[in-house]
DNA sequence: CAAAATCCGTTTGTACACGAACAAGTCAGA
DNA sequence: TCTGACTTGTTCGTGTACAAACGGATTTTG
């Protein structure tokens, strides 16, 4: 029968207690908060834009590395940012493989206007925790990357 | 010029300090560990299969609710599990809209065989933390879902 | 200097993830 | 009883995410 398997395995594995499951749920909640508070742009796109504003002209792959997106992912993100005129690309004269990505005026303005909201989104995500717990949580979470 | 925007915003927003960014990175690392330790199935698919083994016959949407996947997502996951003969679907005679999802022998066996690995994956993900830190982290993470 | 190793950007294929809309089935309340 | 409000499963469109492969450019190294 099946219930021996079930009982045996259930002793070892409870979905609700696995880090992966909790990380997924917490991310989902965070992304919902983001979408609600900054509906005009994606979390990922805002991260890439913010990093690009911080770094200045950067090659596409380098921006991907700086934001934790692989080459295929950052390609799509950069394409969508370009389609929305938040960034532009200009060829690097030194290296013919490379294109520098640069934020447009609109991109820079969006970042300047919405950076505060970005912080507010983090605050809202962490709201269920006390200030002390938030600090602890962030410290531990940072160790898991 | 641009650097006033940049400096001003940079004071408020540092990507590396935002929860969303850290959650994304931690999830990425976890998923990489999962893929390495259980290459034959996806994290999401294993979660759905495990929950289904625990619950027994369940409708597709109900399984989605139990695993935190919306209707469109669980549809794809269930389709792939069915394509791999890990679950089957039989119509509910009481409610003609509904199909019960049920793990196959192969699905049950996979779960029984790999549940331990699931726990090991969680352990490996949390390995950078001490036992005490792990408990704290899980407790706080649970509050953020 | 030439070959090997890297890096750049791109494409293809697969898999989540969610909003929005839909048809069909079910159920509660007027 | 019938009508309106749900629920179930489905589809479509968009956006992340990664593996694997590729051609072309550049750098390293023998």
TrEMBL record, chains A, B:
Protein name: MarR family transcriptional regulator
InterPro entries: HTH_MarR-typ, MarR/SlyA-like, WH-like_DNA-bd_sf, WH_DNA-bd_sf
Domain of life from the UniProt record: Bacteria
Gene Ontology molecular functions: DNA-binding transcription factor activity
SMART domains (alphabetical): HTH_MARR
Start and end residues of each HTH marR-type domain: 16-145
Entry's Gene Ontology BP terms: response to stress
